[in-house]
Design brief:
The chain has a single domain (6-99), classed as YaeB-like fold (2-Layer Sandwich), CATH 3.30.2310. 24% of the residues lie in helices and 35% in strands. It is built from two helices and six strands; from the N terminus they run ββααββββ. The protein has helices at 28-34, 38-54; strands spanning 6-11, 16-20, 63-65, 73-77, 80-86, 91-99. The protein has a six-stranded mixed β-sheet with strand order 1-2-6-5-4-3. The longest helix is centred in the middle third of the chain and has 17 residues, at 38-54. The termini are far apart.
Length: 101
């Protein structure tokens, strides 16, 4: 079960994908995703499902470790990015989204 500081996005066979919840209860990544086009939302959802079900995305154009960081990775759909980190065990927390220019 997700903790009070996160909300479940996808519960896969390998990983649970969760939105980080700020102290005020807002999920910044969820709010950011909602302002994207439906197509972009669906592409991110497909990436979350693939990661949750397999634990891996080999295509660096879709998922990449940020150089010079220990545990920061990004999901990528065109210019849009969602940062994440692994928490305890099989939890993957989505922290925030942004557009890279």
């Amino acid at each position: 079960m997700a903790s009070s500081s996160s909300r479940l996005v996808y519960d896969g066979a390998v990983l649970r994908i969760e939105f980080y919840l700020a102290p005020n209860g807002c999920a910044p990544t969820e709010a950011w995703l909602e302002q994207l086009s439906r197509g972009s939302q669906q592409k991110f959802a497909a990436l979350f499902a693939r990661m949750g079900d397999t634990g891996k995305i080999w295509n660096e154009r879709k998922f990449k470790h940020l150089t010079e960081t220990d545990q920061i990775f990004e999901f990528k759909v065109e210019a849009d990015r969602i940062l994440r980190f692994f928490f305890i065990g099989r939890r993957l927390i989505l922290t925030h989204g942004f557009r890279k220019w």
